[in-house]
Each structure stands twice: as structure tokens, then as C-alpha cells.
């Protein structure tokens, strides 16, 4: 009883899975549901950006930043004048103190206007480079274009003798098509994650940076702002490098789609795994390139010096120039 019945129970799901993989090329080239997903993600990013702007404009956040700046500036002011009382008055130190407080106050005041402008400039550069490399029309994001281009490919297992013959000696063709579909979904997910990260990460940096500026008043506490500055610069570099990398991957996929062995238009006939060698190679290289974007951005900003010491030196130089007149 268990022999034939058990065999039938095992063969039925296998046949269903094989038929699903065999009929996978019937998917349409136009994928409105995919576009809707990316539209929803873009709407979420816009909502996040607007929420951060509203949060930074609230009275509570402004009060925290202003109180923090006032407390640190007052303590620094009292500390300096205590030193003057013990060792004598020094005009240059007073001027340095005033210039330091003034520069930090200017940064605090200009933060909500300066940082969004810098982020917009970085995005414009990334978009220009990405569009120029990939020759995309701009109607869709690079991640959506990669996903849509690959999903529009029709991987067709070729089996002599029809579907049931594929269950025999040519079962490898169906399995290869299944692995190809999984690889397509993998690189689409990786590209989407990269695009979401470069959009959301800039808003995270924008949200927390304002609180670190008052610590520039103290050289020993300026590492807090320096850490944020490196993070912010890495976010800008990530945005630009990610769009260049995604554009290169998209361009490579377009070239592969036109010249892949065994392909006719958007269809690739799969006899053996070697027919998908070009596709798998581009997918593996694309995933590797996209995965290394963060490292590339970190390497670029590793040489960014701490601005805390630079700010103190600028204030000292301005004080000496002003005091020598």
C-alpha cells in the first residue's frame, strides 16, 4: 500500500513544481505591481523626509539644541574668565573664545538650510552620473530598472519531447531556470536595499547632526561632531557611488540581454546551465559590486579630518588677525 501510493504522493508535488518552473517564462514584460512597490517606497521616503523637517522645526527640539548650546557656551565663558582671574587677562584668548562661539552659532543657525542643500546637491550628482552611464530615461529608479529588466527576461527550459520529457533526462534545464529566477530576485532585492538605504540614511544623518554641533565648543568633545561628519560624508559618497554602481550593473544587464548566447529578444532558451552562464556571472558580479558600495564610501571619507581642531585653529587665526590691527 505504501509503495505505489507513496510514490504517487511524492510525484504529484514534484510535477506541480516542475510545471510551475516550466511555465515561468509566461510572465509579462510589463510589471505594474513592481512599479507600484517602488512608488510606495518613494512615498515612504518623502514622508520620512517631511517628518524629519517637521521634527527639527518643533519647539521642543529647538529648545533642547538652544539650551545645550547656551549651557556649554556659558560654562566655557566662565571657565575662560576664571583663568583670566588667576593668570591675567589675555585679549587674544577672549577674541578666540568669541570667534569660536560665533562660528558654532552660525553652524547651528544654518544647519536646517545647509544640510538639505548639500544632500540635494549630492543626489543631483548621483542622478546625473547614473543616468549618463545607464542611458535610463529617468521614469523609474535604477533599482526598479534593474529589477524590471531582469524580470522581463523569459528563461525557457528547452526539452525535446515536451513537458513530461523534461522530468526525465532534461530535468536539469528546469532546475537551472529555477536557480536563474532565484538569482534574479536576489539581485533585485540587493539593489532595492541599496537604494532604500541611501535614501533613508541621509535622513537619519540629518536628524541627529544638529545635536552634535554645540560640542564643537570644546576640542575634547568635538569628536562627537567629527564622528557625525564622517558618517554624513560617507552617506553622501554612498549615494553617489551607489547610483554609479547600479547604473553600471543596469548597463551590463542590458548588454547581456542583447548578446546572451541562446537569447532571442527577451527570451533565453535553456538547454544546460551553460546557457545561463552570462546571466549568472552578471548577477554575481552585480551583487558583489552593490555589496561593496559601503566599503567604497567608507574608504573615501577615511581621510576626512576632524573639524573640531580646524574650528579652533580658525578662531585662533581670526583672533590674531583682528588683534594685530
Q: Judging from the principal axes of the Cα atoms, what is the shape?
A: elongated
* Mean pLDDT over all positions: 74
As laid out across the biggest beta sheet, the strand order is: 1-3-2
Helix count, per DSSP?
A: 11
**Largest beta-sheet details:** 3 strands, mixed
Distance between the termini: 107 Å
Helix content: over 70%
**Total count of strands:** 3
Query: Measured on Cα atoms, how large is the radius of gyration?
Result: 29 Å
Question: What portion of the residues fall into strands of 2 or more residues?
Answer: under 5%
Given the helix and strand composition, which structural class is it? mainly alpha
Low-pLDDT parts are 1-30, 260-265
Return the string of H and E elements: HHHHHEHHHEEHHH
